[in-house]
Give the backbone structure.
Amino acid sequence: MSKYVESVMAQVRAKDANEPEFLQAVDEVFATLDPVLKAHPEYQKNAILERMVEPERVVMFRVPWVDDKGIVRVNRGYRIQMNSAIGPYKGGLRFDPSVTLSVLKFLAFEQVFKNSLTTLPMGGGKGGSDFNPKQSPHTPGKRCSDAEVMRFCQSFMNELYRHISADTDVPAGDMNVGGREIGYLFGQYKRLANEWTGVLTGKGLSFGGSLIRPEATGYGDVYFAQNMLEKRGETLEGKQCVISGSGNVATYAAEKLLQLGATVLTLSDRSGTIYAKDGITEKMLKDVMALKTVKRGELAEFAKKTKAVKFFAGVNSWQVVDKIDAAFPCARQNELDGDDAGYLLKHGCRLVGEGANMPSTPEAIAKFLEAGIMYSPGKASNAGGVATSGLEMSQNSERVAWKAEEVENKLKAIMKAIHDNAWEAAAKYGHKGNYVVGANIAGFTKVADAMVAQGVC
């Protein structure tokens, strides 16, 4: 790292010493920026790095709500408005016990560059709460009821609505925030603001949602992988693929892989991993989707009823398959460590396409880059979700609804543009084929140039 980068990183470590996820995200980006900083001394002159690591605004608030037993519960809510240089803040809401200020700052920081890469005018933000919809507060082993989730979402929006609008900050869904939660949040915003506007994305089709939005992150991840392979004269057909996760990103990545002729061997959740030796079929995949979206169950239940799969309790997807061509981490941050990376490489893996946000640890990334395999960081390959959210914003502004084919074609074009921009940026600065360097520089320069042009603000 240059002295400038080292100086800024030292400041960040001193100020945010108790935020490991945020420090990891900043270090991963800044470690790749030396070539562009040398070529553009105006970035240091305008203190771009120092400004990028400081959120423009952090909102933290209490969320009181009443459970089905009449007991008052209190959670903590957040919204990180990281950077609005190229457009209104855009990024998801996450409801999970793992939510902390550090996690949300890392996600918001990543979101700035991801949104920049989409080619759409969107800044970066993130938010959420430590509320857990998967655990009833009064009945161990049970989930929160729909009524409890609704009351929580309404209370959460009672504060959040003051800080968002279609031209200021447009949240979306993220972990444990799906169509149900977005519906409750949107309804409460509409009630409080007395207006119908596209202030949330991921809405239901009956009230302004976009076709292909649920599929977009998973589809986009696969389209990015397809672009990486096409650069080398290959396709996904016949590739043996392992996937982690079983939510929207993982299942729709699996769906698109099957459509393109690949074999999907694994899916996972907190209960463990399912492995299908002959590949997960379309029927199995539909059953998993129904289990997750309707019954909100776990893969352990699915495995008991499906003889064609083997279940590994408490194990992730990375070390249960002997022959692997491609891996798609689609669950959560830091799920794939150095040992997992070593196993994947030893068993033939030549492509890793991140569907989750920062799912690979620094040790894993180092092994992938040293091996020279095709590796795409999440800020590039999982940008399809927020890109389609941007398309939903456009449809809401025009009061129109595009057909599924039109939205998917736009998604494919955006993912190709992200791939090509990352490829070209890496080549321009002496790192041909390195998508980490390419994605970071391509995303960074667009935001940095806008910040320079807008003055010190």
In short: The mean pLDDT is 97.
